[in-house]
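User: Could you go from structure to sequence for me? I need the amino acid at each position, not a summary. Structure tokens:
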């Protein structure tokens, strides 16, 4: 198989993964709803290109972290379905990464919108 067709196949698997994430993970569905709301808010306040870029990066950061967290949870449950202190620790730090990304995203949102509503 050529380099190009291999890469195209990989993009197909990745797109399938994104679909699986959106169709199975409740937290990603909530984040997608937030994407729709924040996009409407951005259009309403006519935010600048830089603000759109910051907002898009913040959302992408959270959703990517959530996807990786979901994958880590799935691996943990697959390799060790029973409760174990180490599995709890691994899941907690993976969730911690999503928490940090979410704080960054909220901070970006506050920097963009607080001056517009005060
Ligand atoms: N096998 C386990 N052993 C020890 N602690 C666990 C185990 N599974 C989960 N936990 C604890 O429960 C928390 C929640 O884990 P869980 O896998 O249910 O994730 P979640 O955030 O509820 O995600 P989701 O709703 O997508 O499944 C973990 O962060 C960890 O503290």
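Assistant: Here is the amino acid at each position, in order:
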């Amino acid at each position: 198989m050529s380099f190009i067709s291999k890469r195209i196949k990989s993009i197909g698997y990745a797109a399938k993964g994104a679909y699986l994430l959106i169709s199975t993970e409740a937290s990603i569905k909530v984040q997608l709803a937030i994407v729709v709301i924040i996009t409407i808010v951005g259009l309403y306040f006519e935010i600048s290109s830089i603000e759109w870029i910051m907002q898009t990066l913040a959302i992408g950061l959270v959703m990517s972290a959530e996807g990786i967290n979901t994958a880590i949870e799935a691996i943990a449950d697959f390799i060790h379905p029973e409760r174990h202190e180490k599995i709890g620790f691994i899941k907690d730090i993976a969730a911690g990464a999503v928490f940090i990304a979410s704080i960054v995203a909220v901070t970006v949102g506050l920097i963009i919108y607080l001056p517009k509503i005060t």
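One structural detail worth keeping in mind: The pocket of adenosine-5'-triphosphate is lined by residues 73, 83-84, 87-88, 91-92, 95 (CB under 6 Å).
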